[in-house]
Amino acid sequence: MLSTLLLTIIYALYLGAFGGPILLLILRFIIGRVEKLDRHTLLKVVLFPFSIGLFQTFSKPYKFQKLYQTLMIVSTILALYGMLYMIYIHFDLSLI
């Protein structure tokens, strides 16, 4: 049972820390292309960290906004859940 819990925490860490930001980067690029932004604004939207460029550029609702917000929340939750593994390893916890 503990090994299954640790396995899910490890996968959550990988998905939240590596998969989430890459997926959000790709989605920001798609949003910029769909909204037909110029090159300078597109680079700002895609490359500014923590979606700052996206939030500065669009004050009104944009296409894929619900999807982006949902993926951002899921990625954050997975990363926070994955931090449990780091705490487990750091403190050398033995739950058995």
Please characterize this protein's 3D structure.
The chain is mainly alpha-helical. 77% of the residues lie in helices and 0% in strands. The chain contains four helices and no strands. Helix 1 runs antiparallel to helix 2 (39-47). The mean pLDDT is 89.
Q: Which residues sit in consecutive blocks of at least 5 with pLDDT less than 50?
A: none
Task: Give the DSSP E fraction (strand runs of 2 or more residues).
Answer: under 5%
Helix content: over 70%
Tell me the distance between the termini.
10 Å
Topology overview:
Blueprint: H1 2-34, H2 39-47, H3 52-57, H4 65-90
Protein traits:
96 residues; 77% helix
Task: Briefly summarize what is shown.
With 96 residues, the protein is an all-alpha fold.
